[in-house]
Design brief:
Layout: H1 33-36, H2 43-46, H3 48-53, H4 65-75, H5 79-95, H6 99-125, H7 134-151, H8 161-164, H9 166-174
Helix pairs in contact: 4-6, 5-6, 5-7, 6-7, 7-9
């Protein structure tokens, strides 16, 4: 997933990426049948804003940047998120042949990248995060998430804890945070 919205394209992103800012409390869900008719009228197409707001809520509604990032990382792991990653893999493949889908995938990737970058910029502004390039940091985190999304499609039944923690480790390292800072989403 070259740059799934900076990282997590169809492997955890919604199809649309539009809509008002809202707290993202629901769980990501999508069926493979939704990929077939991916577009503005599909269930996946309508789910965009909700799926974007769930892992990366709007700044004004969700607490400190550190807490929001910890929540994002917690919500982009596990079996439900792996299922969405599989949907994104399918959509990316199909987007090679369908211009409308290609545009939707690119739109969603941009929405995720921009939202995560904004969260990181908020953290830099408040002094919580230390990075000279919030965009590059967002992309690095999302690329790691993409890699884990692809890994969800493998027959590896058990992934080592260090591998599962890679997005958190990457974020903490790139943002100058002590190890463990992002382990507790409610903290």
């Amino acid at each position: 997933m070259a740059e799934r919205a900076g990282g997590r394209g169809f492997g955890g992103r919604s199809a649309a990426g539009r809509g008002g800012p809202g707290e993202f409390d629901g769980e990501p869900s999508a069926g493979l049948g939704e990929v077939r008719e991916f577009g503005n009228r599909s269930p996946a197409g309508r789910a965009g804003a909700e799926e974007l707001d769930r892992p990366v809520p709007a700044a004004s509604l969700a607490g400190t940047p550190t807490r929001r990032l910890a929540r994002f990382l917690a919500r982009t792991s596990g079996e439900e998120y792996d299922a969405i990653s599989r949907l994104w893999i399918n959509a990316r493949h199909l987007s090679r042949y369908r211009p409308v889908l290609r545009d939707r995938v690119a739109e969603q990737e941009t929405a995720w990248r921009d939202r995560l970058e904004a969260l990181i910029r908020d953290g830099v502004t408040t002094g919580e995060f230390g990075t000279d390039d919030p965009r590059a940091t967002a992309i690095q985190i999302l690329v790691v998430l993409d890699g884990l999304g692809v890994h969800a499609n493998t027959a590896t039944p058990q992934r080592p804890a260090a591998v599962l923690r890679m997005p958190v480790t990457t974020a903490e390292r790139e943002l100058g945070l002590p190890p463990g800072t992002l382990d507790h989403p409610t903290g």
